[in-house]
Structures are given as structure tokens and as C-alpha cells.
Amino acid sequence: MTAKQQRRRENERAFRTLRRKQGKIAGRQPLRDPGYLDFIRSLQCCVPGCTSVNLHQWTQAGAWTEAAHVGDRGLRQKCSDRETIPLCVRHHRTGKDSHHVMGKNFWAHHEIDRDAVIAGYNKLYEQEKAA
Questions:
Q1: CA–CA separation, 3 vs 90, rounded Å?
Q2: pLDDT for 55-112, tens place per residue?
Q3: Is the pLDDT of residue 54 over 50?
Q4: How confident is the model at residue 59, as a pLDDT?
Q5: How many whole angstroms separate alpha carbon 77 and alpha carbon 31?
Q6: How is the chain split into domains, by residue range?
Q7: Cα torsion 64, 117, 74, 31: sign
Q8: Contact of 70 with 79, CB cutoff 8 Å
Q9: What distance in Å separates the CA atoms of residue 25 and residue 63, rounded to the nearest whole number?
Q10: Rounded to two decimals, what is the model's pTM?
Q11: Which residues contact 15 (CB under 8 A, 6 or more apart)?
Q12: DSSP assignment of the chain, as one string?
């Protein structure tokens, strides 16, 4: 076994140990809220000038808009459901300018303030839930 392979094995072992310890810490799981995800999927894509707005009848059925988890996350962990925004399939996963392809550059490219958008949808959801 080469020195490089030995270091890799030691790093993998240390990583597994760390993950086991993190799993034992209470309150480490992200918030899950299926009602909020349904609310997000019922909205139109939040990218300005998105052409999927013409497909609003599909959006209401949840076929074209997806709940994109865009918040801060841990290693191999999805963020909280309350940190999602509505994105059409093209802007979420499949397009050249999608969130999955562009990563952190997505926000600057589409001129979207991520934190403000997330806060706005949370506030709208709370108002709708209270009514």
C-alpha cells in the first residue's frame, strides 16, 4: 500500500468517526415541513422573466415548479424545508443557467437576493397559514 492510499484510508476512517459523533448530537436534523413544500410547489418560478410563467396551469398542479433547497447545509445533508424556493425544472436542474449547474453563481447571474426571497416566502406562508 502506498503512502497516498494509507492517508486516504486514514482520512476516510476519521470522516466516518466524525459522522457517527455528529449523528449522536441532538437537534442536528434539519426542519421538515411537508405543508411548506406543497405551498412552494404551488407558486410560479421565482426567477425574473422566467418563461414557464406561461405554464401556470401546470404550476398549480405542481408539475413544473419544484421546491429547490437552496439554504445553508451541512456535509451530505439537505437544508431545512423552510429554506426552499419555487423554481421551474429548467432553473432548478436541467438548464445551463440552473441552480444545480451554476451553484453559488446562480444568485448573481439572475440578480436574486437569496436570503430576502427565502424570508419573503416564509412570511407569505405564515400569513396564509394564519388565515
A1: 45
A2: 444 544 445 788 888 877 766 677 888 889 998 888 888 888 888 888 889 889 989 8
A3: no
A4: 46
A5: 12
A6: 1-29, 34-130
A7: negative
A8: yes
A9: 37
A10: 0.68
A11: none
A12: --HHHHHHHHHHHHHHHHHHHHHHSTT-SPP--HHHHHHHHTSPP-STT-GGGGGHHHHHHTSSEEEEE-S---TT----GGGEEEEEHIIIIISTT-HHHHTTHHHHHHT--HHHHHHHHHHHHHHHHH-
Q: Please give the angle made by the CA atoms of 21, 31 and 123, to the nearest 5 degrees.
A: 150
Q: Residue 62: what pLDDT?
A: 44
Spatial contact of 86 and 65, defined as CB atoms under 8 Å apart: yes
What is the spatial distance between Cα 62 and Cα 73, in angstroms, rounded to a whole number? 25
Three cell numbers written together for 50: 422566467
Residue 79's pLDDT is what? 80
